[in-house]
Amino acid sequence: MANLEALRVEWEPRALSVLRCATGLIYTQHGLSKIFDFPHTPTHVPYNVATLVPGVSGLLEMLGGLLLVFGLFTRPVAFLLCGEMAVAYFMAHFPRNFFPILNGGSLALMYCFVFLYLFVAGGGEWSLDRLLRRNSGMVYANR
Fold first, then answer.
1. Average pLDDT of span 22-51
2. What is the DSSP letter of 54?
3. In a designed cystine with 78, which of 15, 115, 120, 123 is the match (CB 3.0 to 4.6 A)?
């Protein structure tokens, strides 16, 4: 068990960075699909920046996802995206059914809670946030 604890202590900040990068890359696809229809989806709605969906949500997903990939402004971006996913769930999914598996909102809820975790935990060891704090001479608390 001591080996597992040592492994956790050493790799937890790095695993956080991997989670952040993977989530950001996957989330960016949603924005790219809404804005550029890439990759093409059969339910694509033409992009209109003046609308909430796909306009504002597409921009948040594409730009926020990219910022998460690089770990830049991780906490504020994750906070915004967590809110976006909560709003998306309660606007689009919850009215259909109480249960997420029946209303199609499982992914929105999962993103919401992963973003909430990233808001609390930060970007991890491999992030531009950490690099910028280290170069500015600030102490980087926890991660």
1. 88
2. I
3. 115
